[in-house]
Amino acid sequence: MIYQPNIDLSTITAIDVHTHVEADDHQHTSLDRELLDASAGYFRAPVPRTPTVDDLAAYYRERNMAAVIFTVDARTALGGHPPVSSEMIAEKAAEHNDVLIPFGSVDPHNVAEAIARIQDLAINYGVRGMKFHPSLQGFDPSERKYYPIYEACAQHGLVALFHTGQTGIGAGLPGGRGIKLRYSDPMLLDDVAADMPELTMIFAHPSVPWADASISIATHKANVYIDLSGWSPKYFPPQLTRAIGSMLKTKTLFGSDFPLITPERWINDFERLGIKEEAVPLIMKDNAVRVLGL
């Protein structure tokens, strides 16, 4: 079954563009136990750490929201630990197409295989984007050898969603389990955005400690957007809070990072920021409708 969205945009209240499928129906998890436990301890989320696609569908349907769902394929960087299947995610999302929007993920270290999988996921499964996590996947996204992967995304009209900034994965472990934060500096993605204006890119998270860089790039590059996931809004850098209510009000997207942060917590804290009233519906839903082609 090829995914096709069937979301009633007139009735949903928000689109959460950043949620994680952390387990399949056989309880295989996207991360090993040490990394799962470290990230759970870092975020201290009040919900189970390993939701399935069915769990996400039920959760967001109950809240009258839609959600972008994905996993991260970091099998090379994680020593061969296989990810949750992007094909399975897309197939299950097709069963819940009233609330879910599937993205795929590929291991960037085998470029030819990644390109072939992007084509397959786009044509035969209907994914709407691809998720990249440079720190977890262990690659410098500005290196030219990865450009054919991005070109494949653009060719098939897929949004490229990149983790930026600090990560809770590996937090508190010796050496952060070898995960290098510098790969998630958004300035590495400025090259990609400049060289590939046809590629729609979302920079995930407030990009701490590089928030100014993300704000600058999103202001400068028409093809770059920012999602606001992974941090409670009460901890947003003040310059980001100012920007999303003004010059970036059409370039920012609601995202929670569920299950690490719940949408209820995020929205409750967001409502206290005093964002200009006209910007709120854009951030919560309308920008995502446009970026995702809904």
Automatic annotation (TrEMBL):
CDD domains, per the entry: metallo-dependent_hydrolases
One GO molecular-function entry: hydrolase activity
Record keywords, A-Z: Hydrolase, Lyase
Domain Amidohydrolase-related: from-to ranges: 15-294
Pfam families documented for this protein: Amidohydro_2
Name of the protein: 4-hydroxyphenyl-beta-ketoacyl-CoA hydrolase
Organism: Brevibacterium aurantiacum
Source organism phylogeny: Bacteria, Bacillati, Actinomycetota, Actinomycetes, Micrococcales
